[in-house]
Amino acid sequence: MTTVSSAGHTRRDFLYIATGAVGAVGAAAALVPLIAQMNPDASTIAAGAPVEIDMAPIADGQIVKVFWRSKPIFIFHRTKHDIELAQNVNVASLPDPAPDSERVKKGHEQWLVVIGICTHLGCIPLPHEGNYDGWFCPCHGSQYDSAGRIRQGPAPKNLYLPPYTFISDTKIRIGEESTKSA
Amino acid sequence: MSGHSTYSPQNKFLQWFEKRLPIGGLIHSSLIAYPTPRNLNYWWTFGGILSFMLGVQIITGVILAMHYTPNVDLAFRSVETIMRDVNYGWLLRYLHANGAAMFFLAVYIHMFRGMYYGSYKEPREVLWILGVILYLLMMATGFMGYVLVWGQMSFWAATVITNLFSAIPGVGDTIVTWLWGGYAVGNPTLNRFYSLHYLLPFVIAGVVVLHVWALHVSGQNNPTGIEPKSDKDTVPFTPYATVKDGFLIVCYCILFAWLVFYIPNYLGHADNYIPANPAVTPAEIVPEWYYLPFYAILRAIPNKLLGVCALFGSIGILAFLPWLDTSKVRSARYRPLFRQFFWLFVIAAVGLGWLGSKPPEGIYVILSRIFTFYYFAFFLIVLPLLGIFEKTKPLPNSISESVLGAKA
Asked: Which of A88, B24, B379, B403: CA 20 to 30 A from A155?
């Protein structure tokens, strides 16, 4: 390439820089669809719409598993005993402190709705197992209680809560948070 | 490679790297300092355009492959999912489909340039033959890509083209069954076409490397057809050819963008939006426009085996061009008689393309036969004889003289 030794830029310099700048903008713009296409497409997003679950058939003490956005959701119809165990815990001693009232919706304390994915490395914990009246994860031994909170093992966090709202006493819509205060 | 590199990096790291893998020197000698004839016109930019289009096809193709399903029950639907659901899927699909058309347009211009200026002549015979191989690979890739859509045209094109091999006496039917992987075009066929369609573009990329290597051994041809004699006849590839190629690529992209954003289905066939139906053949089967001349040649011959031979022969004959043309003069600029026959050849080729889109009846058949005759006569009769009888114009003394006049 010819070098410009004297002070003062030539017209050629301006053309090179201008062309380079426009080319860089064009290349960046061209990159946008190539990268965006890997994001979830419209049909996947549509399939992730909220699901309505009728919980009336779930017996006292029973845990069922449903799917929302390809994630397993545990729905635990807690007995009075399960609720007592969950409430009578020293919250400060928990690895991820949270009172039972923050894990359920007001007036519906017998229903625990949590995402059934171990917060350690993603396995699905086994229901009615472990020492805490909750779940036991077979992959690395994490144990959760009847409020889905981590009590023992390598998992750092409590089982996550999905957005959900009660549309009747026994029906919930998972994927939608209620507009009223919890 | 011949000659020592003039590349000496200032940067310490680049010096260290260059001692171990001299890729900097390779890029410098092939793309930056490379001596390029100073009189190249815009017909010489199509090699760069072809490389660009190959890149576009590979990038859009690999991305489309993330969303496509190669199963007879799911393929058509997956293409529609790409068009309707995938983010920018419509853009990627139209880029890829119209990109194939732009790829073929560029290759035809590139080939006609080679024929006009005698770029196939000694010492560039292997370069030309590598080009013919690239063209055949492109045709195979394009055909298989079209089948993947699994529309009516896809399915029946697959049936017709694979059935061509049944014309081979004796082993024909065995070969066809082997190609199909079944008793008719079906899921095994679709799956293997998908695998090969993904593979061949990378084979093309490899042969392109050989093609450019062969080119760099002989050096580029130029509009006068006489070799560079001194440094005055050439300029460094960068910035001259780089910018010229870059400019034409941008212009080419304008044409490409016009197709993709305004008339993306113009070159396609509406029947390919109908899912494949193995029980019903559409009333009018036509391949994509870039195969039409050969389709016309196939239909012009009334005999099945001879028609297939003419089809493959019309492409294969290109490989013999360096030996069929006996003239010592390279460029058509100095061959007035050859020039006329050449343009007649272009008319015949384009005419055959138009005729390939017409139903095989009446005047269309007669014209197809006339043009097919001229197509083969050009290679087998005209070119060998012209070298003996043509009175060529006097050649200039050097490239720089032809550009700058006698005062060079």
From this structure: A88
Predicted ipTM?
0.83
E strand or H helix at A151: strand A150-152
Q: pLDDT tens-digit profile of B8-24?
A: 888 999 999 999 999 99
> What's the CA gap between B403 and B162, in Å, rounded?
51
Provide the shortest C-alpha distance from residue B190 to chain A (in Å): 25
In B317-381, where does DSSP find H-type helix?
321-324, 336-356, 363-377
Q: How many residues would you count in chain B?
A: 408
Q: A35 with A67, same domain?
A: no
- B8 Cβ neighbours under 8 A, 6+ residues apart: none
Mutate to test the interface with B, among A3, A10, A15, A41 (most CBs of B within 10 A): A41
In this structure, the answer to whether residues A151 and A98 fall within a common structural domain is yes
Q: Any chain A CB within 8 A of the CB of B187?
A: no
Question: Are A41 and B66 a contacting pair at CB < 8 A?
Answer: no
The domain at B30-281 falls in which architecture?
Up-down Bundle (1.20)
Calculate how close chain A gets to B59, using CA atoms only, in Å: 9
pTM for the structure as a whole: 0.91
CATH architecture of residue range(s) B286-394 = Orthogonal Bundle (1.10)
pLDDT tens figures, A103-147 = 999 999 999 999 999 999 999 999 999 999 999 999 999 999 999
CB B379 within 8 A of CB B324: yes
